[in-house]
Design brief:
Length: 231
């Protein structure tokens, strides 16, 4: 089975031989890929909704080489996953706020996990901040562009995180240190977008425009700080 660039990058963060709980599995593509390639010996494919879970079951049944390696389970986050059942959690393609809620509510499960592989669709900085403040350290990051959209992702382990600046939280300390080329593309695009918005605001003196200008000034400063890593 061929994965999208985004999902392939997420799967690439999984450690060989892991037992995986894929939270919000949707079509079950990542569990099938991990089982078929021998990356994971056991995968729990879970979703809160029965519809996506049924689609995942159909896709799994259509792949004979993964028979017996994947279990589907209806679960709200980690609530139906027992501590010790999996050493790796994947949460990809959902908002950062939802990922944080899942981690917060599933502390008894994540305490016994080795890896958290997270791909937030929004608020990645808040996810990094949560990990850093709750006994996890980000040990690997990646970012891909697919069909005009940019997807950051990270792998975290138990440990003590070092000091992060606001820029590093926002855009990813490891991505910046690596001078990741996809992050640079994203930063330059965001820089252009901010400039265009400022032009659109023009000389308006409304309270709303003034507030937005202040926000843009902060956002542009963070982008500029991030681009300094590429000098």
């Amino acid at each position: 089975m061929e994965l999208s660039k985004r999902l392939r990058a997420v799967a690439g963060l999984v450690t060989e031989g892991a037992s995986v709980a894929d939270i919000g599995t949707d079509h079950g593509y990542i569990p099938i890929y991990l089982a078929a390639h021998g990356t994971a010996g056991k995968v729990i494919a879970s979703d809160i909704n029965e519809g996506p879970l049924e689609r995942a079951r159909i896709h799994i049944q259509g792949q004979k080489d993964v028979c017996g390696k994947i279990e589907t389970r209806r679960s709200d986050g980690l609530k139906a996953i027992k501590p010790g059942e999996a050493d790796t959690m994947i949460a990809a393609g959902m908002g950062g706020g939802l990922i944080i809620r899942i981690l917060e509510e599933g502390k008894d499960v994540t305490e016994q996990m080795k890896d958290l592989i997270l791909q937030p669709q929004s608020e990645a900085g808040k996810v990094r901040s949560y990990l850093n403040g709750h006994g996890f350290v980000i040990v690997e990051e990646d970012m891909v562009e697919e069909e005009g959209k940019y997807y950051p992702m990270m792998r975290a382990e138990h440990g003590t995180a070092g000091t992060y600046t606001e820029t590093e939280l926002c855009y990813g300390k490891l991505l910046l240190e690596q001078r990741h080329p996809v992050l640079r593309e994203y930063l330059l695009r965001e820089q252009r977008i901010k400039r265009d918005i400022e032009v659109q605001l023009g000389e308006s003196e409304s309270e709303r425009s003034a507030k937005r200008r202040k926000e843009l000034e902060k956002e542009r400063k963070l982008i500029q700080n991030a681009l300094e890593y590429y000098r």
